[in-house]
Amino acid sequence: MMTILVTGATGTQGMAVAQALLADGQMVRALVRDIDAPAARLLIEAGATLAQGSFEQPASLRAAMEGIDALFSVQLAPDRQHDRERDQARALVDAAIRAGVRHVVHSSVSNSGDFRAMSGWSEGRWERNYWESKADVEDMVRTAGFPVHTVLRPAFMMDNFAMPKAGWMFPDLAGGKILTAVSPETPIVLVAAEDIGQTAAAAIRQPMRFAGAVIELAGELLTLPSIAAILTAISGATVAALTCNADSLIARGQHHGWVQTQQWMNVVNYPARPAMMMHWGLAPTRFADWAARHAYALPCARQR
Length: 304
Prior knowledge:
This protein is α/β, with parallel strands linked by helices. The chain has helices spanning about 10-25, 40-45, 60-65, 85-100, 130-145, 165-170, 195-205, 225-235, 245-250, 255-265, 275-280, 285-295, 300, and strands at about 5, 25-30, 50, 70-75, 105, 150-155, 155, 175-180, 185-190, 215, 220-225, 240-245. The protein has 13 helices and 12 strands.
């Protein structure tokens, strides 16, 4: 039995990783800012122990690292804070190296290895700092000197269609509409957070098999009309997917960066495919199965 420190443990990815590790019989230490937060209490109920701290408090990171065997690393993407992701990763990696951590599983994003070759990059069409930050953090993990490292590159999470994320990503879903700039023909490359958790658990369970691996994660490719049809069948409420003008979406309150990602999907999109998971002996989750298990959290189901 190993002890694994999970960062981002109250978030979608970190929670899924913690749950998968606990189910695998590992000991989980969850790094949390607020030990009284509802998600933190859920972690305790699941069997994890809490380490209160943050990336901005080096002493708390050093304390959280004591006696751990492996680390799951995930950071917030840059936003108005240009170097937020880099700074968080640098603090975490430094603390892990000082503590003698032997294995790091880091979660990045699909396509972070080839972004400079994607259509529209040289013209400055896409958010450069987002992709460069992801690549810089991967390089930090890769070159820090850990005996073993594994990089996960998940695509678009299925969990974005459930609360609480759907509340800001798909604010009209509660009313039966998915409004985006995504073309009806564009496939959404989907992955369930639980698949990220299962992959992280597998990598920690078999460190040498996954040593140096870079794994693109996807469970299924579906257009938004197909996703709407599945949500209709699962929730019992009629859901329609509508393609809108990007400016109108921003005017309605959708975040500019999220709308640009929608446009990016039409032109570039995530390269992750289910076969890439299956190559590692992992079983990708299909969207209909995920939606059935998370029906209670679908905004459309709540409005029936």
